[in-house]
Fold:
Amino acid sequence: MKRVDLGALLSAKSYPGRGIMLGRSADGTKAVAAYFIMGRSVNSRNRIFVPDGDGIRTEAFDPSKMEDPSLIIYAPVRVLGAKTIVTNGDQTDTIYDGLDHQFTFEQSLRTRRYEPDGPNYTPRISGVIHLKDGSFNYAISILKSNDGDPESDHRFTFTYSPAVAGQGHFISTYMDDGNPLPSFEGEPIPVTVEGDIDALTEKIWTNLNEDNKVSLFVRYIDLATGTFETRIVNKNQ
Structure:
């Protein structure tokens, strides 16, 4: 698949839902992770990202407006040693616990399915970056229904090893807006990774649909030291 510009990809969609991009900086010195959330309902839009240790969690911007926290309050990012986990739900904790008990990324997700929000049956998308010996690999997973059939699961894991400078892969929960919302299809999309953390943050945020975007997380991890820089952007301030 030909690599595409992430900004152009996002600007062409009004509602990709939640999205993960993992990759390597153009100069080859950083592992890169990005995660965004969008919302159409008041409940979904009433969120912010806040730091939580080395990771982040979602939080209600206005607690008085919170209706159902079950699928919207979770830790999207957690760090376990040399591994950074990024997901669109509470499967972050499932992966963290599995990896901590020596299960693989794929094995850890065997206990999970898509979200129980029919008729959308929102896919669970997950990613993990694994630093090793000054380089790294990453994997991306999607758990989805069989074209809207809740009785059948489709499970896909894509691994990229070693990560290549200036390249990344993007996956989202939905192809775009719709009723019901159409689940993401195919392999994660190859994208170019250019510029520093602020340039990437600006590119993603400015190209997300203005009405539907909610929050964005971007992290650059130094491969030599393991230290990282993080940017968090919340529409609700």
Q: What stands out?
A: The chain has one domain: 6-234.
